[in-house]
Amino acid sequence: MKTQSQSKDKHINFLKKLRESATIRIALILLVLCVFLAIAEGKAFLTNENLLSVFRQFSFIGIMAIGECLVIITGGIDLSVGSIFAFSGVIGSLAMTSWGLGFILGLIVGLVAGAGFGLINGLLITKLKLPPFIATLGTMSIARGLSYAVTKGYPVSDMPDAFKFIGQGHILGIPAPIILLIIVTIIIGIFLHLTITGRRIFAIGGNEEASRVSGISVKKEKILVYTLCGLLAGLAGLATAARLNVAQSTAGAGSEMDAIAAVIIGGASLSGGVGNVAGPILGAAIMGVLRNGLVLMSVSAYWQQTVIGIVIIVAVTIDKMRYEKL
Amino acid sequence: MEEKTILELKNISKSFPGVQALNNVSIKFENGKVHAIVGENGAGKSTLIKILSGVYQKDNGVILINGKEIDIQNPRKATELGISTIYQELNLLPNLSIAENIFVGREKRNGVFYDKKTTEIEARKLLLEVGMTIDVGTLVKNLSIAQRQLLEVAKALSIDSQIIIMDEPTSSLAADEIEILLKIVKELRHKGKAIIYISHKLDEIYEVSDKITVLRDGESIGTVETNNCSEENLIQMMVGRPLVDLYPKLEVDIGDEILRVDNVTSGNLVKNVSFTLRKGEILGVAGLVGSGRSELMSAVFGIDPIDHGSVIIDGIELKSNYPKDSIDKGIGFVPEDRKMQGLILKMSIRENITISCLEDISSRGFISSKAENAISHDFSDKLQIKSTGIEQKVENLSGGNQQKVVIAKWLATRPKILILDEPTRGIDVGAKKEIYTLIGELVKIGVGIILVSSELPEVLGMSDRIMVMHEGLVKGFLSRNEATQEKIMSLILK
To answer: Tens digit of pLDDT for each residue in B84-96?
Structure first.
């Protein structure tokens, strides 16, 4: 009797998920976009080279967007990721080159710097009770300023080869940044969807007060989430520096908006409690493919920006309309 | 005054995916009458109101006002047709003044400018009609819930509605405030308004209504004259079966002390409170709204800080003041406001039930979905939560079933002490009885229960001992045998 009702539950769940899942709808949008480009610009778009290059390009934003997604699920926002991206990149690169710490230690310095800024965000938000928007607006400026200060505005270059591999190398013909994105996705996916902490992150975004009453240490979980977000922004910054063989204090300026856009296009709700790990990647992929398509169709760079803005608004509007109808 | 049918519903039906919310419902409402609508949760009351106020559209049927067929496409249209709805959840703007709230959307103008003077004069007249003497410039956020309810009534009067729908208007009011509201309802009747009154409180319905329509499972079971229908009859119509002995108080051996609250002071509303609770005991807590009952429970559970005093569970003092520690020590807490503090509405029944016991169903931080499903099915069945399955989102459940989910969540933590703050507020008779039965089963296995309630019959019916609070102080304790409504009231007023 019970097993019967359970299997029936499962059946209904699958159909319901198909109907309700924003992720599947977004994946369909991406598919339609790809099919359109394949027909319109088949020769140029469908080459192995082009596809891998598009994938590699959005993998940096993708890594950052996954961290941003965790924050947005708790009902917060992190505006500092673009600046942390730059700071981790330059401090890690400086450690490897000017300070002579070598590849491993330099990488660690960069990642710790990112996680450290994330931790500071978390503490400002939970201990000083600053709204996330304000706290991360502050650290956004601080991290950017520090990036200029430690480099005096000069780019850092001549990275060790081992480091460059992270951005430029290939494993079984697949560019390393793509592998990195896949690893991050799997780890964060398992963390978010299968562990106690992951469940609590959703609960906090759904109803912070009820979560506290239910025995969740809201502050502890939030600090963890902002720290992870900082860490992933730092990782993305380091990977970009490795890719370009140069770390610049201006790197990633404005990329926080790309990360947030990827999360929102990916179906998460800014009011919190909703989202999944696939969303930000699909969101980043849609923006990446769209940019590529516009380049292939020789649309001017100025218009590309405009088109992407329109797509963000249209995608979210369609999704919202659907949701409200249900 | 001549009485005539002002609003008539003919064969109204409405269905949602999987549910026939209303099925061929026909009701006539007359002016100068208070017409109550009763029924269990999920009987279709809310759907009916939402159709009348233009929030939902009917699937079938006809609505007539003064004999003319009309179509209520949206809430604005309802207002134009003279139908005002006062919802349970109030629709006021907290940062605007009383006067501004009354005329919001219909601002008085002087050319292009906002006419503050006229607004305030008109508002003052309306407030007098509902018996409020407060300054019309007061911001709504500074008003009590009762004053807000009255303000909603004033707003309904300002648009000269002929039909006023009140949805559970007294659910968050104290006894004296209820009296004022009922008086106004009677005055409105006298002025010839048709009033549709929805409430779970039968005593109120008997005091104020002329007619009662009973809904059950989306169908109209019948309309009766209030004077000709006994309470037992009415309940039988509502639940479809005779309901014997609402408070099934079992004889249970009361064991050792498990909770000692010693001289606890918290904020301005809890002053030097001391009490104890024993295994298998039900301690009722009575008092008026604002007596500090809920604040005391929040402090004991660790939501609000304890300024001084101590809480001792099984001989061990609770050190840090976090809900997490209280839960670990074996306290469960069903809060007064289930939507704010009890539930994560966007999450499923399963996720809500297990949110406080995730550690028990996990290993190395990973949730076992098998264990999780088992425990959710278990409690969902045990508490008879009516749903499409454990994956249904809690926001789509009726109030009574939502409350059952909150209770299930705490039962899943296997508590030694369960604090229930207004556990049956806004819940129908059938679900109430189920919750009382459950409380009886819990004390049988030795759980200590603290039952906070504004409904005196509930406290009297269930408790072994009653603690009476007033203005943050404990005014006294009454044993089950000596307690009566009069004694509780006299302790409060002592």
So the answer is: 888 766 678 888 8
Separation of alpha carbons B345 and B339, rounded Å: 7
pLDDT value at residue A17: 57
- ipTM entry: 0.86
Inter-chain touch B345–A16, beta carbons under 8 Å: no
Helix H or strand E encompassing B333: strand B331-334
> Is the pLDDT assigned to residue B1 strictly greater than 80?
no
Token readout for A257 is 């908006």
- Domain extent listing, chain B: 5-239, 245-330+415-494, 345-412
Q: Which secondary-structure segment (H or E) carries A176?
A: helix A176-194
Q: What is the pLDDT of residues A122-167, one digit of tens each?
A: 999 999 999 999 999 999 999 999 999 999 989 999 899 999 999 9
pLDDT value, residue B466: 95
Mean pLDDT of B220-242: 83
In sequence order, which residues have a C-beta less than 8 Å from that of residue A82 and are 6 or more positions away? A140, A144, A233, A252, A253, A254, A255, A256, A257, A259
- Beta-carbon separation of B355 and A211 below 8 A: yes
Q: For each of the domains in chain A, give its residue range(s) and CATH number, in order of start.
A: 27-325 (1.10.3470)
* Rounded Cα gap, residues B370 and B305, in angstroms: 38
| Nearest in space to A268 (alpha carbons), one of A210, A316, A200 | A316
Tell me how far CA of residue B269 lies from CA of A182, B174, B296, B388, in angstroms: 55, 16, 8, 42
The Cα–Cα gap between B266 and A224 comes to 31
**Which tokens belong to A296?**
């292939």
**CATH of the domain spanning B245-330+415-494:** 3.40.50.300
The Cβ of residue A235 has, within 10 Å, a number of other Cβ atoms equal to 26
Do the domains B245-330+415-494 and B5-239 match in fold? Answer: yes
Query: pLDDT per residue over B157-183, tens digit each?
Result: 888 788 999 988 887 777 777 888 888
Dist. CA A44–CA A51, nearest whole Å: 9
B235-to-B48, B182, B437, B455 alpha-carbon distances in Å: 20, 22, 18, 18
How many CB pairs below 8 A link A and B? 87
Is B362 touching A (CB cutoff 8 A)?
yes
DSSP A270-315: TTSS---THHHHHHHHHHHHHHHHHHHTT--HHHHHHHHHHHHHHH
Nearest C-alpha neighbor of B383 from the set B437, B444, B445? B437
Identify from A213, A271, A276 which residue to disrupt to test chain B contact, counting B C-beta atoms within 10 A and taking the largest count.
Answer: A213
Average pLDDT of chain A, as a whole number: 90
Out of A9, A196, A210, name the one closest to residue B389 (CB).
A9
Q: Pick the closest to residue B58 from B31, B20, B30 (CA basis).
A: B20
Q: What is the pTM of this model?
A: 0.79
Nearest to B324 among A5, A202, A215 (CB): A215
Tell me yes or no: is domain B5-239 CATH 3.40.50.300.
yes
Mean pLDDT, residues B132-144 taken together: 85
